[in-house]
Amino acid sequence: MSKITREEVEHVANLARLRFSPDKLEQFTARMNAILEYMEQLNELDTGGIEPTSHAVPLPTAWREDEVKPSLEPEKITSEAPESADDFVVVPKIIE
Question: Which pick of 28, 30, 58, 85 has the fewest CB atoms within 10 Å?
Fold first, then answer.
């Protein structure tokens, strides 16, 4: 039994401003039906006791803990800059 018709695939392609030959439309319809039939199989699985996850395996976090560290001295930073004013680096204006 078809889950999606050729006309529906053609309608979605039209909304996406895509044009396909009749052969390609038939191919896409068959592929979409295969995907939707597989999704039906997945929907039959009992997932009631399974906790939702974002990944199949646990991943370590790439973030480090926040640590308070001394910052650079403003005078050292501004001495390296091509132009400075007070304790700030002067940069060209980019937004009008």
Answer: 58
